[in-house]
Design brief:
By secondary structure, the protein is an all-beta fold. It has strands at about 5, 10-15, 20-25, 35-40, 45-50, 60, 70-75, 80-85, 90-100, 115, 120-125. Helices cover about 0% and strands about 45% of the residues.
């Protein structure tokens, strides 16, 4: 059974940084495209960013472009979400997800495109 485990959430002040981690219990590179989503109370789950299976391409939501960065350590089957210049509106539960589908069908921002999900980690940013 494929499992994803996130870690690294917490409570920080606006302007701070956090790095989230997501480890998958399978070989990640060339197998799974990885995505990050977030969900704030009373809101729908929204796309944050994604990394293709080969690890060479990333895409981001406009709201985080330039502040958040996705990277991977293939030896650890782990993907990271580095979040800088955090804002109060970044507060949410952050989820990582994995997909076996082709990244180039253009649906990496669609939560339904993903096959597996982590349990989520809370990020709270106070202003």
């Amino acid at each position: 059974q494929v499992q994803l485990v996130e870690s690294g959430g917490g409570s920080v002040q606006a302007g701070s940084s956090l790095r989230l981690s997501c480890t998958i219990n399978r070989r990640m590179v060339n197998t799974y495209a990885m995505g990050w989503f977030r969900q704030a109370p009373g809101k729908e789950r929204e796309f944050v960013g994604a990394l293709n299976r080969a690890g060479g391409r990333t895409d981001y939501a406009d709201s985080v472009q330039g502040r958040f960065t996705i990277s991977a350590d293939n030896a650890k089957n782990t993907v990271y979400l580095q979040m800088n210049s955090l804002k109060a509106e970044d507060s949410a539960v952050y989820f990582c997800a994995a997909s076996t589908k082709s990244y180039y069908d253009g649906r990496s921002s669609d939560s339904a495109w993903y096959d597996y999900w982590g349990q989520g980690t809370q990020v709270t940013v106070s202003s």
